[in-house]
Amino acid sequence: MHDDQLKQLLRNSRAVDAFKQAVQKFARGEESELIQYSAGAPKIKILRVILKLLESYPNETISSVAIRGVSTCSTFHGELSFSPSNKKIKFNWDCRWKAEEAGLTTWYGAPDQSKAAQVFGYQCFRQFHEAS
Description:
Blueprint: H1 3-12, H2 17-27, E1 35-37, H3 43-56, E2 64-71, E3 75-83, E4 87-94, H4 95-102, H5 113-120, E5 125-130
Parallel strand pairs: 1-2
Antiparallel strand pairs: 2-3, 3-4, 4-5
């Protein structure tokens, strides 16, 4: 993830300033009570979910997020809720799927999920939509 991408997403977002500052701090490795997430969830995957939220909902007022997810080697899936609207988003970040879709393979022919994660970053979401 490039710092320029983060700055652009934050600039285009109607999230409250305190949340924008929390996201910037989180990207530098600092915790914030405005960003709650499942114990053991990799911070890079949490950040990818937040970036996708900012991109997908630029006109929403966002003051905090709660992310409940399960991480595997190539996936991170679960549910995100954000305040004050309390909208719930189901997500599935899947770099193996993205590698297959993009035709990225290792020298031995397997989907190159590491390359997909590097190239596409937070754009490896197979699913990111409001829960019904």
